[in-house]
Design goal:
The chain is an alpha+beta fold and 122 residues long. The protein has 5 helices and 4 strands; from the N terminus they run ααββαααββ. The chain has helices at residues 8-19, 28-39, 58-67, 72-85, 94-103; strands at residues 44-49, 52-57, 105-107, 118-120. A hairpin with a 2-residue loop joins strand 1 (44-49) and strand 2 (52-57).
Length: 122
């Protein structure tokens, strides 16, 4: 199989080379990560964040880049597809977590017809 992506700097550099300043969710960065999820769903990359260095599955990274941090509907769809059709081993049960979170979104009473907002029920 393909080795894990050991240096996230290569992925970051490739993102910048391919996408330049196009960093909107669902845009170029999604086009970059989704094929990596499709072709190598169980490989991991290493990222450095506020909690230090950790390994992240390519499909998990694709869900972040394609959907953003708080779009549970999108993450539910992407990760469920990966589990059922790409044989993604969702060891953290992220697909289930995002699907459950997506069902907990409730509408907020509208004060004005143009106020379309939803909030996650806590």
């Amino acid at each position: 199989g393909v080795r894990d992506f050991e240096e996230s700097i290569y992925c970051r550099d490739a993102e910048h080379a391919c996408c330049g300043e196009d960093w909107e969710y669902g845009g170029c960065v999604c086009d970059f990560w989704e094929p990596l999820c499709n072709d190598h769903p169980n490989n991991k990359i290493y990222v450095t964040g506020i909690y230090g260095r950790s390994s992240v599955p390519t499909c998990s990274q694709a869900s972040r880049r394609c959907c953003g941090w708080d779009n549970n509907h999108c993450k539910c769809d992407l990760l469920t597809h990966a589990v059922y059709f790409l044989d993604y081993k969702d060891k953290e049960n992220d697909a289930d977590e995002h699907c459950v979170a997506a069902t907990n979104i409730v509408p907020v009473p509208l004060k004005h017809p143009n106020d379309f907002q939803t909030w996650t029920q806590q």
